[in-house]
Design brief:
10 helices, UDP N-Acetylglucosamine Acyltransferase, domain 1, binds uridine-diphosphate-N-acetylglucosamine, Spore Coat Polysaccharide Biosynthesis Protein SpsA, Chain A, 464 residues, 27% strand, binds calcium ion, elongated
Length: 464
């Protein structure tokens, strides 16, 4: 169920598209359902259905998730009625699991448990119940003296006595399709909200012996209604992600301040992650890597044994094995750093391939460049790749040495093993094995400084 507006989010974006640890809430819920073995998933959409469908197509593949439209939100019972046509060809004994698109922390194991409980119950219905840690306007589970589940009374419809019941409806159900088909026709909107309540199915199941309830911790089923809930759920998701990686052999010295998105992985054993590190998008980290304080890694692959010093920022890049990067290195999209290469402080790269053992240790801009094996880029080197209209390529062949404070005006090639003298502005190709120099020749004027000081001191004294 994901048709609701999510008014309290105060957002242009449909609620279920808000991200928890980098993955949309509806993405979490569907991933859990698939992990639990769901053969089909039908998303019930309404508010901004086209935008939600676009996310589902992007995340799960075009058309992989079936869509049912609930044009007008007339209650959770009505929402499920809208999905029945999508299930028209399914057999009566199939079990339908009904989940909320705004409760991303539900575990796949729990969905499997819920399904098994439904399968084992002759009444063909099971649901998750919870005791919230604070007052929540949830439906209350009403039982008879023997403990049989008789019905759910919604908060808005409940008497004072009923509100005192601690067991509440978490909002997740498994029902045999035959019962769903028959019972949804019998529910009425004769209640405080004037809605068709899905929860009325529980009273129907009572006529067949009663639904099973499974009590689960509130934190696992609590949904998101506003941005405060979103932050709470995000923190819980992040803790779960970090714990899972630590159990896989990753060291985090401050797991509370380590931000790893849900879709990141794998992260190899013996990798060490410092405080404040953010790893987002489709990123992965190899074994024995070191990612120090404050690094931000987005859609990037970091290979085994890479040593990344603090505050380095990577996006859409490939960082090779046993490289040394940072501190304060910025690798922008299209950067590839091969084995053992070094990038140091205040080096920015973009669409640049640094081959094995190449080094740019200080203050450089390397854009649209191919940098051969074992090249040394001096401090302050700039590839001038942009002429105001087009981007041009710089090629530096293996073993070349670029002296400090040089500009390479692209398109340009520096040949194999060539040298560029410090402070040169290179506009023409440099042949292999040669030295290119574009500096003005140095002149030394002997005694000039002494004479300059003396003359100025004299002038100053005269004016006092
Ligand atoms: C529902 C349950 C309540 C339970 C609570 C737990 C009903 C009648 N009540 O209440 O017993 O304690 O969840 O969170 O089911 N939705 C639609 N279409 C609609 C209405 C809702 O798709 O017409 C979706 C919402 O987007 C949301 C989910 O269903 O994802 C739950 O709806 P919501 O309005 O939040 O139900 P509650 O009133 O909270
Ligand atoms: Ca709700």
């Amino acid at each position: 169920m994901a048709a609701g507006m999510g008014t309290r989010m105060k957002s242009e974006k449909p609620k279920v598209l808000h991200a928890v640890a980098g993955r949309s809430m509806i993405g979490w819920v569907i991933t859990a359902a698939q992990t639990a073995g769901a053969k089909r998933v039908v998303a019930i959409l309404g508010h901004k259905a086209d935008v939600v469908k676009a996310e589902l197509d992007a995340r799960f593949g075009a058309g992989k998730i079936d869509i049912a439209i609930q044009a007008e939100q007339r209650g959770t019972g009505h929402a499920v009625m809208c999905a029945l046509p999508a299930l028209a060809n399914e057999a009566d004994d199939r079990i339908v699991v009904i989940l909320s698109g705004d409760a991303p922390l539900l575990r796949a194991e729990r969905i499997a448990q819920l399904t098994a409980a439904c399968a084992a119950n002759p009444a063909g219905m099971a649901l998750l119940s919870t005791v919230p840690d604070r007052d929540m306007p949830y439906g209350r589970l009403v039982r008879d003296a023997s403990g049989k589940l008789m019905r759910i009374v919604e908060h808005a419809d409940a008497s004072a006595d009923e509100r005192a019941i601690r067991d509440t409806n978490a909002g997740f159900y498994a029902v045999r399709l035959a019962h769903l088909r028959a019972d949804l026709n019998t529910i009425k909107a004769d209640n405080a909200k004037g809605e068709l309540y899905l929860t009325d199915l529980v009273a129907r199941a009572a006529l067949r012996g009663g639904a099973t309830s499974i009590d689960v911790p509130f934190a696992e089923v609590s949904g998101v209604n506003d941005r405060v809930d979103l932050a709470t759920v995000d923190l819980a998701a992040r803790r779960r992600i970090n714990e899972a990686w630590m159990r896989e052999g990753v060291t985090m010295i401050d797991a509370e301040r380590t931000f790893i998105d849900a879709d990141v992985g794998p992260i190899g054993r013996d990798t060490w992650i410092g405080p404040g590190v953010c790893i987002r998008g489709k990123s992965s980290i190899g074994e024995g890597a070191h990612i120090d304080t404050g690094c931000v890694i987005v859609d990037t692959t970091v290979a085994d044994g890479a040593y990344v010093k603090p505050y380095s920022v990577f996006s859409e890049s490939v960082i090779g094995p046993r490289t040394h990067i940072g501190p304060f290195t910025h690798c922008r999209p299209g950067t590839q750093v091969d084995e053992g290469a070094h990038l140091g402080n205040f080096v920015e790269t973009k669409k640049t391939h640094l081959m094995a053992g190449a080094k740019a240790n200080h203050l450089a801009y390397l854009g649209d460049a191919s940098i051969g094996a074992k090249v040394n880029i001096g401090a302050g080197t700039i590839t001038c790749n942009y002429d105001g209209f087009n981007k041009h390529k710089t090629t530096i062949e293996a073993g070349a040495f670029i002296g400090s404070d040089s500009q390479l005006v692209a398109p340009v090639t520096v040949g194999r093993d060539a040298f560029v003298g410090s402070g040169s502005t290179i506009t023409n190709d440099v042949p292999r094995g040669s030295l290119a120099l574009t500096r003005v020749k140095q002149v030394n004027i002997e005694g000039w400084a002494d004479r300059f000081r003396e003359a100025n001191a004299k002038r100053k004294k005269a004016s006092e």
